[in-house]
Design a protein that fits this description.
With about 260 residues, the protein is of the alpha/beta class. It is built from nine helices and ten strands. Helix 6 runs parallel beside helix 7. The mean pLDDT is about 90.
């Protein structure tokens, strides 16, 4: 089976500092992959390279077997149209009501077909547990948990082939974080979409993931089924998963 996404030899440096140093990773159609790793290990840079927001220095990123590195213009726009994204801070448009935020990808920001788009937005909001009256609110009126739900609704509204989640539970208390994790898992399964999530929250990883990969020092040092996290046999994974202060990720002298 051709992977939905196949990444090979991906490298990216900023000045003389390498951030991605030969990342190899494949994600199957319909699979939910969670990439874990400490702060500053390159998780966000990896995501931006896949999305085409950063140009890698070397390597390959294939979508259904087709190379995406170097795409420009209409080809890049067509690639991105297959993606849905939940940004870390939600990244909603403060000047637009919730329903226009949710329907933004469907109209390419043009604001056309208002009545139909509002109906679709309300239907999508219901899928993430929000009532119809939320549709007319502005983002500033939303709680943190509601904002994340709206951002999730926007990510799935166009029924994308690939979903990306950037630290989806940042800023939420454990209960609301668990709700968002469950909603993400539910929506990914309902769509049959491929999903890539980057997070350092192991509770999120255990709920969202089919498979987990750990990024460290610019490379994938382990990947496997989420059920194997606690018996990975990799000291880097073991320290990270259990939050131990001593170990190869962050020795005590550098804590």
């Amino acid at each position: 089976m051709t992977p939905r996404l196949a990444i090979g030899g991906l490298r990216k440096a900023f000045g003389d500092k390498p951030v991605l140093d030969g990342v190899d990773l494949a994600v199957a159609p319909g699979e939910s992959l969670v990439v874990i790793g400490g702060s500053g290990t390159g998780k966000s840079v990896l995501l931006k390279c896949i999305l085409g927001l950063l140009e890698p220095d070397a390597g390959s990123i294939r979508l259904d077997g087709q190379e995406t590195v170097g795409l420009t213009g209409r080809a890049r726009a067509q690639m991105r149209a297959r993606f849905g994204m939940l940004f870390q801070g939600g990244a909603l448009f403060d000047s637009l009501p919730v329903w226009r935020n949710v329907s933004f990808a469907l109209t390419a920001g043009a604001g056309r077909d208002g009545a139909a788009m509002k109906r679709l937005a309300i239907e999508t909001l219901a899928k993430v547990g929000l009532a119809a009256d939320v549709a007319d609110l502005r983002p500033a009126a939303l709680s943190g948990g509601m904002l994340k739900r709206v951002a999730l609704a926007r990510a799935v509204a166009a029924r994308p082939d690939v979903l990306f989640f950037d630290e989806p539970t940042t800023g939420l208390d454990p209960i609301r974080a668990d709700v968002i994790n469950a909603l993400i898992r539910e929506q990914v399964t309902a769509l049959g979409a491929t999903a890539i999530t980057i997070t350092h929250d192991m509770a999120s990883a255990r709920v969202i993931a089919d498979r987990v990969a750990m990024l460290h020092a610019g490379r994938i040092v382990w990947h496997g089924a989420v059920a194997d996290l606690d018996r990975s046999g990799e000291p880097l994974v073991d320290q990270f998963v259990h939050g131990r202060r001593d170990g190869p990720v962050l020795p005590r002298a550098h804590a």
